[in-house]
User: What shape does this take?
Amino acid sequence: FLTYNWSFVDISTLTGNSTVLGNSIVSGTTTIGGNTTITGNAQVTGTLKVGVDGTGHDVYFYGNTSGSQLQWDQTNDSLLLTDSTPLKIGDSQDMTLYHDGTNSYITNSNGALKIATETSGIAVTIGHTTSEVTVSDNLTVNGNIGLGTTSPMNRLQLSHTAGDSNNGLLIVREDTDTAANDFLGGIGFDSTDGNV
Assistant: This one.
């Protein structure tokens, strides 16, 4: 067992178990065939590889909270984060990505949260054909809106096939105490100059 500060500057090989209680500096090539426990600081000035191409190993990074950890899972070739362990991006960690055990979150505390690219012609699909999308605040659309069409030619275009099914536009007043002649809804027209 090694119980003092040590430094490797050339090629070295450890074939048994070793324990390093102090600081260590590795500046050359080191091969460790057994288990190694380091309780002090360790500095590697060269490239650090875990396993070889095609044969990897699991790597764990534990957090200060019990159960919070990051793992490279070599079996599934995946980087894993436990529930409520966020991936924080940016110098001030403004963007976070995490799952709390129930829901998944992408949050941003500074600037705009942009999804897609800055170039044209890149399609973005949100949701599934059977899922629902909820907008919790104002929605601003700079282009055209198409309902039933992927190529609307107007600011708002509703396209549907002929028939009396649910392919039209319906305004519904959602309450249970409407009476005859009650206003159920409408479509208004106005201008920004206030003259209409």
